[in-house]
Amino acid sequence: MTTNVISDRLEYAVEKVCAQVVVNSKKMNWRACDDEVLWHELVSCILGSQVQYEHSKAASAYLVFQRLLDVGKLKIGAEKFEQDITEALEQPIFPPMTDKGGRKYRYPKLRANHIRRTAEQIYMSNNSIKDILLSCNSEKIARAKIVSFAVGIGPKQASLFLRNIGYARNLAILDSHILEYMSLVGLLPQLIQSVPTLNKYETIEQALYSYSGKFKTSMAYIDTAIWVVMRTCWKEGILV
Fold this sequence. Notes:
Elements: H1 3-24, H2 35-47, H3 53-65, H4 71-76, H5 78-89, E1 94-98, E2 101-103, H6 108-123, H7 129-134, H8 139-149, H9 155-164, H10 176-184, H11 198-212, H12 219-235
Antiparallel strand pairs: 1-2
Helix pairs in contact: 1-12, 2-3, 2-6, 2-9, 5-6, 8-9, 10-12
């Protein structure tokens, strides 16, 4: 199959999926959320770095269920706060489940440390996520702010956080699926696996933003549709 044929088929699939994404899209209203809700979502994005989506969501949900993300516990004892999160993430309870149990989270100690240090950056100075967001006057400034205080988060996960809470509509989530798609349709000269700097990230993001105009909808819907299409292609062996 030629590159042009692959490109055309992928774009056709993205257009069809995008229509469903628009219909089914539901976002939080960050202004109406308690800071606890925003904090939990930020933790989910910290846990999502270099980890499968389902795995990180399950880990985040477990920490919330066990009330291990309560910042009041951080103020009582930061070391115990981090250790409790580490021990929870080390449990073999995450999907996929088998007769012998489930998987352990991939980076328990590292991410527990990132969560603790991020919580300290925000809450030990009597700040809040909502106050930080209110101080920003653009999506890109908010992303840079998130990257500056959230330990272990780069522009991709910061963009995801801002998208999930309903703050941003025009920031791209440049994960490996999106980058591969951009390579296949000619938006990138060669395939890359990750974007190391914010400046480079914004350059690639602008290319995707310009491209998204052909679908006549916001980039938030386009890159979600691309992610769904590419993930499905890999699962079904269409792309190898």
